Amino acid sequence: FRIMAGKVKWVTDIEKSVLINNFEKRGWIQVAENEDWNFYWMSVQTIRNVFSVETGYRLSDDQIVNHFPNHYELTRKDLMVKNIKRYRKELEKEGSPLAEKDENGKYIYLDFVPVTFMLPADYNLFVEEFRKNPSSTWIMKPCGKAQGKGIFLINKLSQIKKWSRDSKTSSFVSQSSKEAYVISLYINNPLLIGGKKFDLRLYVLVSTYRPLRCYMYKLGFCRFCTVKYTPSTSELDNMFVHLTNVAIQKHGDDYNHIHGGKWTVSNLRLYLESTRGKEVTNKLFDEIHWIIVQSLKAVAPVMNNDKHCFECYGYDIIIDDKLKPWLIEVNASPSLTSSTANDRILKYNLINDTLNIAVPNGEIPDCKWNKSPPKEVLGNYEVLYDEEMAQSDGSERGRPGQTTGLKGSRARDPGKPVLTTWK
């Protein structure tokens, strides 16, 4: 006589059919948030309350949520950069070969985030950098906003002064009333396809930070601008030229509602293999995977690795015309709105595969399990990095393009010296 295992009770404050259909397909039961729940797919606003000091929620072993308490260490534009800078310094102190620099003092491997300053805090540092290269374009983004809101491009100091000076004191305004911004060197030589700029949206699932275990979703996509790209400064305020956010592009006259200006990653791969060759295409994708793992390693020490949590991040990567990938930002709540039919299917499958890893067998969760699911349940995910595995089988090598503990990545460069283990 076995007591029937109970059904998972779920709550969400994000009313999206791709979520709800997945819960219902599993026969899970919807409850209200003030009832006993096992699985809560929540917005980033809600996670703040759940883990805030005031409410001091105690989650029990049969409850899991879809964010880490301080995910913003990776998903806020300013904190991500700060953590990556700290990570580089630490690797440098340890004398890690990863922190190697070229003759101009630039990181050879760890230079994967555009030069970035926080405003207002780093205003003077920014000005110094701007004057070194006065013909460059910079992109300003509010730290806490998404979907391309509040973003603008500048190529003259006066444009930022206008924004920053308080008329009375004419000193840089830094009250909380003025939002914090990041300002980054704009990648003005993006790889163009059909004359248009695009970026990559890749989904990365982290089941635990210590040890780090993460998965890459195979079905990422490219988001194209609707208007041909020009670095011409006369078009600096045409966001249809510069920003790939669907939230912006869908208002463009040339937006295509059938494919939504999107291409699959596998399309991109085929296109690059045929135009640039297989070798460089493989190298590009290895580097993309490598920088994602590095960004996660950079935040792992500060992340509150709560055993009730997992997270599916939306990574935004831009590729320049030298086929160098740049990490632009990481999103904590990648959009689950579907702009097209294909998009809807992709996101439904993304949630399905995510749940199969996060909630084994669709049964009531137990936070004590070791979070390493069998290969059969991964669906379209593949293991990107598994710290325990990398340490036990000595595949912890280090440089992009070598087998960097990245599963499925081919060791294609036997000629290079193998780097010693790095943690």
From TrEMBL:
Checking PROSITE patterns in the record gives: TTL (PS51221)
Report the subcellular localization.
Cytoplasm, Cytoskeleton, Cilium basal body
Q: Which GO terms describe its cellular component?
A: ciliary basal body; microtubule
Alphabetically, the GO molecular function entries are: ATP binding; tubulin binding; tubulin-glutamic acid ligase activity
Region annotated Disordered, chain positions? 390-423
One Pfam family this sequence matches: TTL
Q: Which GO terms describe its biological process?
A: microtubule cytoskeleton organization
Q: Which reaction does it catalyse?
A: (L-glutamyl)(n)-gamma-L-glutamyl-L-glutamyl-[protein] + L-glutamate + ATP = (L-glutamyl)(n+1)-gamma-L-glutamyl-L-glutamyl-[protein] + ADP + phosphate + H(+)
- Organism superkingdom: Eukaryota
Q: Kindly indicate whether the keyword Ligase belongs to this entry.
A: yes
Provide the alphabetized UniProt keywords.
ATP-binding, Cell projection, Cilium, Cytoplasm, Cytoskeleton, Ligase, Microtubule, Nucleotide-binding
**Family from the record:** Belongs to the tubulin polyglutamylase family.
PANTHER family per UniProt: POLYGLUTAMYLASE COMPLEX SUBUNIT TTLL1, TUBULIN POLYGLUTAMYLASE
Q: What is this protein called?
A: Polyglutamylase complex subunit TTLL1
Q: Which organism is it from?
A: Sitta europaea
The upper taxonomy is:
Eukaryota, Metazoa, Chordata, Craniata, Vertebrata
